[in-house]
Design goal:
Layout: H1 2-36, H2 43-75, E1 91-94, E2 97-101, E3 106-110, E4 113-118, H3 123-128, E5 136-139, E6 142-149
Parallel strand pairs: 2-4
Antiparallel strand pairs: 1-2, 1-6, 3-4, 5-6
Helix pairs in contact: 1-2
Length: 150
C-alpha cells in the first residue's frame, strides 16, 4: 500500500509543480510585455498598460507563493509512514469516497480508483483527522464511515 501513498504524493507534487510553472510563465510574460511596451504619444495609455502588467505580475506572484506554501506542506509528508488513525499523509477509504489527506489537489486516479486530495484544514479533512476505522460522520447531507486508514 505504500506504493499507493507514494503515487498519490507524486501526483500532488506534479500538480503543485504545474501551478508553479504556470504562474512563473505568466510572470515572465507580463514582465516581458511590460518592458516591450514602448511609450507612445498617449502617455496615459502607456502608464495604464504598465499598471495592468504590474497587477498581473503581482497576482501571479501571489499564486506562485501559494503554490510554494503547498509544496512546503507536502514536503513535510513521509509517504512511507503508517498510522492506524487519519493524519496528514494518510489515505482514508470511506463508504462514500477515498481521500488522501495532504494538499487540496482535486481528484487523483491510481489503478482506476479515484482519490480526493484534500487539505487537513478542509471541512472533510478536519472531520477525518485523528479518526480510526469505523468512525462515522455527516457532511453536506451525506454520511461517511471510515473503512480503512492506510
Amino acid at each position: 500500500m505504500s506504493e499507493l501513498k507514494q503515487e498519490l504524493y507524486n501526483q500532488c507534487l506534479d500538480y503543485i509543480q504545474k501551478r508553479m510553472d504556470a504562474a512563473q510563465l505568466a510572470i515572465n510574460e507580463a514582465q516581458k510585455a511590460s518592458t516591450d511596451d514602448t511609450k507612445s504619444s498617449a502617455g496615459d495609455k502607456y502608464e495604464t498598460g504598465r499598471e495592468m502588467m504590474q497587477q498581473e505580475t503581482d497576482r501571479n506572484m501571489m499564486q506562485l507563493n501559494e503554490a510554494n506554501k503547498l509544496k512546503v506542506s507536502l514536503n513535510k509528508i513521509n509517504p512511507a509512514s503508517v498510522s492506524n488513525k487519519a493524519e496528514t499523509g494518510s489515505v482514508v477509504l470511506t463508504d462514500s469516497g477515498n481521500f488522501y489527506i495532504a494538499v487540496s489537489a482535486g481528484i487523483l486516479t491510481v489503478n482506476n480508483e479515484n482519490y480526493f486530495a484534500i487539505s487537513p484544514a478542509s471541512p472533510i479533512g478536519l472531520r477525518l483527522m485523528g479518526q480510526k476505522v469505523g468512525f462515522e460522520f455527516g457532511l453536506n447531507n451525506k454520511t461517511y464511515r471510515i473503512i480503512e486508514v492506510i
